[in-house]
Amino acid sequence: MRTVKELSTITGISVRALHYYDEIGLLTPTAKSEAGYRLYDDKALEILRQILFFREFDIPLGKIKSILENPALDQKQILQMQREMLVAQKARTERLIAGIDKILKGEDTMDFAIFNRTEVEEMFDAMFTQMPEQIRQIAIDEFGGADAWRAHYIEALSSEQMQKSFAKVVEWYGGKEAYQDAAKRPVSKQVVESYNKRLDAILQKLAAKKGCPVDSFEVKEIVGEYGFVTKQASGMKDEKEFMLVYAEYFRKDPMRSELDKKYGTGSAVFFAAAIETFYGKTE
User: Fold this and answer.
1) What pTM was estimated for this model as a whole?
2) Into how many domains does the chain fold?
């Protein structure tokens, strides 16, 4: 067994932080001495190492708690998740280095293209195949045929403005390949309905906390769960920016009116503020 001070020395985290982790239920001591001092075993040390790893990626404590408490995730799966985060970070760092090298060599051509024409065509075909028949037929009727719709889609998504928009979406997914894989992967109606029910249940819980400060642990815990399920449903590597965009969407009509009607007056603004607080929005 190790004391708080010994654990602090080993990991470099402050004693005060360890006390706070205990208070919020993130890292509970294995036992306490007769004098009431916190004691930690090897398993607790391993959990702390996992917590510190996630903190390196600026993941909020509430979300870390949700991840570690998720019964569907064992230690191997958590390690795999952490490995994927490192791989995504490495790929992004390498892209940034490559971009700087081009600028230094005078080879910066300001190429805005994220997806080439062939890739855009493949994305349309995947969307067309997965889309519910009723919605697909509405679009076909609107454009006067599937071919006309396909041509319009390809032209629109090949524009500079749309390609630049894709840059942010690709970042949310942790890379171009990850986004393409998610776009091409068919999702059953049952799976979509299941996720929608989970998200609705979470928002119901969050609406019940409207009288609580948005920075309280109980509110942050619910928002962390909402973000985690959203990430699972979308296949994103990092949902932070997406959730902040979603928060802005919550503040605007017609979404604000729909949320207030379903969850109670003031819910939309409360949801938005809670999300922005959880993900540390900066002006």
Assistant:
1) 0.44
2) 3
